[in-house]
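Pipeline run #58 for the internal structure catalog. This entry was flagged by the ingest filter as a single-chain record with no existing model, so it goes straight to prediction. Upstream metadata was stripped on purpose; only the residue string is passed forward. Reviewer on rotation: M.T. Logging verbosity set to normal.
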Amino acid sequence: MRKRILTCIAACFYYSGLVKLARLAARYSGPRLIILNYHRATGGDLRRQLLYLRRHYRILPLEQALEELFTDVKGGQHQPRDQRIPLVLTFDDGYRDNYTHGLALARELQIPITIFLIPGYIESENAFWWLESGRLVRLATVDEVILEDRTYHLGREQERKSLAQVIDGRLRYATSVAERDAFLAIARKLLGVSSTATPEEKPSLSLTWAEVREMQESGYVSFGAHTMDHPLLAYLTDPNEIEYQISTCRRVLEQQMGRPVRAFAYPVGQLQHIGDTIQHAVQRAGYDWALTTLYGANTPKSNPYLLRRIEADVSQHWLVVAAEAAGLWGFFSRLRWNPRIRKSLTNAGQIRGL
């Protein structure tokens, strides 16, 4: 229901001309760069989304787009002939369907994409930890389990959900990767679930190094770093582990691909997951740019180590992606929650209209 409502709103934005107006306003407001943040390449109509974006935006490789954004135009850099707003397509985590579907679309439509990789998962071939809570509960071979002094009856839906939440919380807020992996091993043993992926789970696993190299050789795919093991960096307590996750990731990727890795994407990527310590570690590791999941577009005044992205999902209707890329969702969200506007609209009895 929620997805239908969002699609209807997005259709109103598009067919009323608001999306086009927002694009034009953004174009004339000064240099800017839009970076979309995808994860999966299957589960919807990514092709239709990319066709729309290719028509209305100047889609660039990440490094080229950032070089252009931070180059002083007055210092001798000429304006590109194509005056459409530049846009970059990023895919976090490196799911295998980025290869089986994403690469094919990039070749067909001649669109560059950037994928942020997690070498630890490429080499282990394990399921990503954020999928494990649901996976363990779904594949459990026991009827009940005792975890942290509580008994969960897996025949009851609400208790399955509660157990999944507990497992996810322990994995998410672990203070080290070793702690996370140790708890995961305990949970697997208690629930009787193997770490080996089932055939149905293969598309949810990481890319292989062979697939990474083939994608790079295509000329349409570039890669960035996303830590060695995807911990939430701000929760790690050992500074040496923070350095390892950030620096070693870059070194491993460069060794495997034979070219510099200049961009880093923070896992999860909100401010509470980053902090000054993590930013400084990224700079020390030699990266030129770092991407967050903070909403918005980027300008030449943006912090290169706190670059913003707009979340996109392959399951969304292309009209929703059109509204997102144009910044309309963010604009109306700010309008809705601006205290002064909210007060005036409430007084006018119009707040429900937003």
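catalog note: Strands lie at 34-38, 58-59, 86-93, 113-117, 144-147, 150-153, 221-225, 263-265, 289-291, 310-311.
catalog note: The first helix runs from residue 2 to 15.
status: ready for reviewer M.T.
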